[in-house]
């Protein structure tokens, strides 16, 4: 038998079967290779990989923290404009670097350490104060984190925290440093302030063309245009290409059926519960409720633990054993006792919000756009390659646009901020800051490389002309020059009047008399601290008066008014041991200095360690999921 099999293995039929087998395995591997990873690696720190889903989760958490500080009006787009995505990326890199550094020093975590940390986390504790598996799962679900991701993050924290604690550990700031800082920041100054608005001085008449032209000519950059560039570009984006795809009605209907779960809002029920450890007590409570007694009365007298579960879907019920009885009630009411690992539950369904499915017609247009966009992705890559090949062959940008079947766009006189000479944004100018960055890095007459944009598209551009920064002609800005000249004259008059007033004060004239004679307003504010700017003071004025000596009179000409200030007294802060308020402020400063010192040490250590590891960030992939 074995001999026959060996003979058969050398025949032509066996060879054909082997070839087919090899091809099938090869095709299987190729398909697997070409299939896009639904959760790709977007950050690599050494051989440690961070996937797209984790970055998205961390960004969402950071946005929520920002909303708690600044209010619910903070949108994801606003957070991105504030650079929150880069902060999250840097934070993830620092975490991975520090975890690897801790491991290189021989530090490790164990399962018992993880279990202990989870059990002690108050977010996972139930009404009895002990670990609640249901609450643990619910908290992870609401955070958008699976258990594997959470355990990996927790393991990293258990490595990093002791390491950083050891690095920043040091004695508290020395007393002389704390006292010096306290004396500096706690000092206040008693001052007399005399002020006059520039606008209160008489306005000079129009001096004529010659004087205004001379003023315009002497102005440094007040009337300058920024550097401008004429740009020709070809922009490839999925939305633009998708417009050319027609999706048959039947395909839309088929896709609607495939995605029906996306368009169906599951039934929700508003639920409260009482949990008993005794089955008889639970049965009695259920009977009393069904007999008509109020929930408040039964919950207060029955000895169980009452809790509001809020509005929940069937799939979100924890523990799972509660889902059937809760959603089995045909209308609002009370369930019979349900036993779980946590005890015996009596549930009250207060309200039912029935399931709702969006009809096909309501979502048809959105489906059309979605399908067309999916089709456009492959076409986008083909056209991008065609554009790149055309340019590589030495052809013009216009020829590349023809090959890719997309229009050429031209923008004249665009500044680095995306505005033209009139201060307006040209219609159709790509909104990505990356586009303008490439435009102002490209040499005049040159064509940039094909660049992937944050929206998943591509662009290539040519700088046709660079217009150097230059002063606008007088004729274009005359209406601006005249009021500027008038303000300059008033400012000069105000400073002259203030200088004379200061001399009067130095000569011993009382502030009230001097202010009245010069037409200045007089103010005697409470002693000022360095951090205070009560009206009509300004930060620059406060900074100047804290540099002055006691008794000194100074003149400060600000943007819209002039000040004459006399420093009457320098008041050192109290540091008396029996002054409780002063001692509390000293302790607060000591904590601030200690915190700042720890942060500086930690930052320096992180930067030093980070330089020892290779870091690779796929920013385009991150932008695709966040933007």
| Low-confidence sequence ranges | 1-10, 16-20, 25-35
What's the mean pLDDT score?
87
Q: Into how many domains do the coordinates divide?
A: 5
CATH architecture field of the largest domain: Orthogonal Bundle
The CATH superfamily of the largest domain is Porin chaperone SurA, peptide-binding domain
Per CATH, the class of the largest domain reads Mainly Alpha
Q: What class do helices, strands and sheet pairing give?
A: alpha+beta
Q: How much helix is in the residues? A: 40-55%
**Major β-sheet annotation:** 5 strands, antiparallel
Oligomer: single chain
What is the number of E strands?
A: 21
User: DSSP strand (E) fraction?
Assistant: 15-25%
Rg to the nearest angstrom?
37 Å
- In CATH, the topology of the largest domain is named Triger factor/SurA peptide-binding fold
Basic shape? extended
Number of helices, counting only DSSP H or I runs of 4 residues or more: 23
The first-to-last residue Cα distance is 66 Å
Give an account of the 3D structure.
- With 627 residues, the protein is an alpha+beta fold.
- It folds into 5 domains: 2-34; 41-169 and 612-626, Porin chaperone SurA, peptide-binding domain (Triger factor/SurA peptide-binding fold, Orthogonal Bundle), CATH 1.10.4030.10; 188-220 and 475-571, no CATH class; 225-244 and 370-471, Chitinase A, domain 3 (Roll), CATH 3.10.50; 270-354, Chitinase A, domain 3 (Roll).
- It is 51% helix and 18% strand.
- Strands 3, 17, 18, 19 and 20 form a 5-stranded antiparallel β-sheet that branches. Strands 7, 8, 9, 10 and 11 form a 5-stranded antiparallel β-sheet that branches. Strands 13-5-15-14 form a 4-stranded antiparallel β-sheet, sandwiched between helices.
- A hairpin with a 2-residue loop joins strand 1 (41-45) and strand 2 (48-51).
């Amino acid at each position: 038998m074995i001999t026959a099999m060996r003979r058969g293995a050398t025949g032509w039929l066996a060879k054909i079967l082997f070839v087919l087998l090899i091809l099938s395995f090869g095709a299987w591997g190729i398909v697997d290779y070409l299939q896009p990873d639904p959760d790709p690696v977007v950050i690599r720190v050494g051989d440690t990989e961070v996937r797209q889903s984790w970055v998205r989760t961390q960004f969402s958490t950071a946005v929520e923290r920002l909303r708690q500080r600044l209010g619910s009006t903070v949108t994801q787009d606003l957070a991105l404009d504030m650079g929150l995505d880069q902060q999250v990326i840097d934070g993830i890199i620092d975490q991975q670097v520090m975890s690897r550094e801790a491991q290189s020093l021989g530090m490790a975590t164990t399962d018992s350490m993880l279990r202990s940390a989870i059990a002690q986390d108050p977010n996972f504790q139930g009404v009895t104060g002990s670990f609640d598996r249901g609450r643990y799962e619910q908290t992870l679900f609401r955070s958008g984190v699976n258990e594997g991701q959470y355990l990996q993050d927790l393991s990293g924290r258990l490595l990093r925290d002791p390491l950083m604690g050891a690095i920043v550990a040091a004695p508290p700031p020395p007393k002389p440093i704390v006292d010096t800082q306290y004396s500096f920041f706690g000092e206040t100054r008693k001052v007399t302030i005399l002020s006059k608005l520039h606008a209160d001085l008489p306005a000079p008449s129009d001096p004529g063309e010659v004087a205004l032209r001379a003023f315009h000519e002497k102005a440094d950059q007040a009337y300058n245009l920024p550097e401008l560039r004429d740009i020709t570009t070809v922009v490839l984006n999925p939305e633009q290409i998708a417009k050319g795809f027609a999706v048959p009605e039947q395909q839309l209907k088929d896709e609607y059926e495939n995605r029906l779960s996306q368009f169906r809002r599951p039934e929700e029920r508003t639920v409260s519960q009482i949990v008993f450890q005794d089955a008889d007590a639970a049965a009695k409570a259920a009977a009393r409720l069904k007999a008509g007694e109020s929930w408040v009365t039964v919950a207060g007298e029955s000895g169980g633990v009452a809790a509001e579960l809020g509005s929940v879907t069937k799939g979100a019920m924890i523990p799972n054993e509660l889902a059937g009885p809760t959603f089995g009630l045909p209308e609002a009411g009370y369930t019979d006792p349900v036993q779980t690992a946590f005890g015996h539950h009596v549930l009250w369904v207060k309200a039912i919000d029935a399931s709702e499915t969006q009809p096909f017609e309501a979502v048809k247009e959105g489906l059309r756009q979605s399908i067309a966009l999916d089709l456009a992705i492959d076409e986008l890559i083909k056209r991008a390659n065609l554009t790149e090949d055309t340019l590589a062959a030495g052809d013009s940008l216009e020829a590349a646009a023809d090959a890719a079947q997309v229009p050429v766009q031209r923008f004249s006189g665009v500044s680095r901020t995306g505005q033209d000479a009139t201060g307006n944004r040209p219609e159709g100018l790509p909104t990505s800051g990356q586009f303008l960055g490439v435009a102002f890095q490209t040499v005049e007459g040159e064509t940039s490389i094909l660049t992937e944009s944050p929206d998943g598209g591509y662009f290539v551009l040519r700088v046709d002309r660079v217009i150097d920064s230059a002063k606008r002609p007088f004729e274009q800005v005359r209406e601006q020059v005249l009021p500027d000249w008038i303000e300059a004259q008033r400012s000069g008059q105000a400073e002259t009047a203030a200088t004379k007033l200061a001399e009067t004060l130095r000569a011993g004239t009382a502030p009230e008399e001097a202010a009245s004679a010069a037409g200045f307003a007089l103010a005697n504010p409470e002693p000022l601290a360095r951090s205070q700017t009560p009206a009509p003071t300004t930060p620059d004025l406060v900074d100047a008066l804290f540099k002055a000596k006691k008794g000194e009179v100074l003149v400060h000409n600000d943007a819209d008014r002039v000040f004459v200030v006399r420093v009457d007294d320098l008041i050192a802060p109290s540091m008396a041991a029996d002054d409780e308020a002063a001692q509390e402020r000293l302790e607060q400063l000591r904590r601030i200095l200690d915190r700042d010192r720890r942060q500086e040490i930690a930052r320096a250590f992180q930067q030093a360690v980070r330089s020892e590891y290779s870091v690779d960030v796929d920013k385009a992939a991150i932008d695709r999921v966040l933007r």
